[in-house]
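Q: Could you fold this chain for me?
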Amino acid sequence: MRLALLAFLLIFLSPPLSAGARADVVALTVVNGADEVAYTLDQVREMPRVTIVTDTEFTDGSVEYRGPLVRDVLKDLGMGDAETVRFTAANDYFVDIPTSDFRDYDVILATEADGVALSRRTKGPLWLMYPIADFPELRDRIYNNRLIWQVVKIERL
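A: Sure. Below is the predicted structure, expressed as structure tokens.
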């Protein structure tokens, strides 16, 4: 009887799980050699953010994305001199990207699209986004393949 009462209390009196309630869970791990830093979604959202408006083959029309510049994230972690970094998604898919991309373009780790927080259903909570609409050379399959979503890890190679 006590076990049933405890289960009832835990299930029905616990706050509901929502995007905000899960913001304190590790969302991104950044690895620089032997150093590893874990960020919650709140910590990523607190980083200085920029906005880019672009279209992709994964969206209908232009979308306003917001998030921190990847070059700033790398620089803050002492990875500004890295030549290549690997982005890994929640499903273990990964892409290796030359850091020259982040110096040449305002590539962001998007946390929201059109003012709405990205969720797993909308390719979030972190989606690597290039300003494709601003640079014709980015309309190439190589860059399209770098638009990795559900990013959970960045590591220096």
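A (continued): The longest strand covers residues 26-32.
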